[in-house]
Amino acid sequence: MSILHDIGRFGAALRMARRSRLAIREMNALPPELQKDIGWPASPESRMATNIRSVYLKTLR
Asked: Is the overall model pTM greater than 0.70, yes or no?
């Protein structure tokens, strides 16, 4: 692989992480009743675990 290909992959991973982070922020901003209706974690502990797992650990592998 060339260095440009590696840089492109890194940029794509950063864009995906940013989109995921923004989506999680929007979901967390919903009222707890709506979060419960759609099955989104409503407790602060589960929110933090969801943020860390979905945004950083999954995209950087």
From this structure: no
